[in-house]
Amino acid sequence: MWQVPETTLRVAAQAGHVAVDEHEIARVAEMISAGELEIPPWGAEHHYFDGTAATVAYFTVLDTVNFCFWPPPGKRRWGIRVGNSFLSGYVGMASALRAAMEKGVPLTSAQYLSGMNAAEFSRIIGGSGMLPLIEERAAALRELGGLLLAEYRGEARLLVKEACGSAVGLALILAEKLASFRDKAFYRGGTVWFLKRAQILAADLYGAFGGQSWGAFSDIDQLTAFADYKVPQVLRQQGILRYSPALASRVDLMVPIPAGSDMEVELRAATIAAVERLRYLLVQRGKAFRSHELDWMFWSMGQDDRFRKKPYHRTLTVFY
Predict the structure, then answer these.
(1) Does residue 153 come out as left (phi exceeding 0), alpha (psi in the -120 to 50 range) or beta?
(2) How far apart are CA 47 and CA 208, in angstroms?
(3) Which DSSP symbol is given to 260?
(4) I need a surface site. Which of 99, 144, 176, 185 has the fewest CB within 10 A?
(5) Hey, which residues are catalytic here?
(6) What does each C-alpha distance from 216 to 6, 57, 61, 170, 300 come to in angstroms?
């Protein structure tokens, strides 16, 4: 059962630290309808793609380690040098793993992944600066490799195949079988589901394969926004999310917010609820955008200094 929209909407409706501004959502909906804001194209230049099962394995590995790129205070952000550009965050990781694939690093081998350690992972991605949670990334890859060996003959494509063309099904399989993808929290007596990285894997495959082959998902429109730290930063900048004074102070002073705290759960839930509301208003205007496409738009805006005048929230977690 797909519980992400329902459970996050419940939290957003009760939230005390985050409010969703309907007027600002309507304003942004008008901007999108008028073409002032656009959905960006798939970022093929940063990803490995050969059209085969190797690409499926690449994205499965990438989204297994796609979390927490911000450094501690005083430390330099991790990234890699590609030509004249310094690529950090998700783009840096995607590019580093692409380079590793092209050099022949056996990232498609479940046996190799099952023996991953922090030193080997650091060697694979290279780069400079501080990347948090290296040990946790290595552990997540070991878990992935072990699962693929135990249940899928060592092949990520068979895990994706088990979803039978369902993006939601793939996200649920990942959450059921891999603890590092089991992105949920507890709030006022109930479980709240986010499944950020599990959903992103489905969306990445959809984007990479253009909705065909391994990216052919009949229910791609059921995916929600991916509740991370960049999208709420942009939603706040746009006035769509309004923070309580206590939350605003912690975010602006870059004080870490504990994973699973009311503040963090409400912030992530409100992000999903706001994007769902925006999608609904766009449908009313005859613009049928999917939530994951709107997420891509806001995330891409978050790479532009104009849309990140205030900090994003800091939560140390493997889920985003």
Answers:
(1) left
(2) 8
(3) T
(4) 176
(5) 228
(6) 25, 16, 19, 12, 24
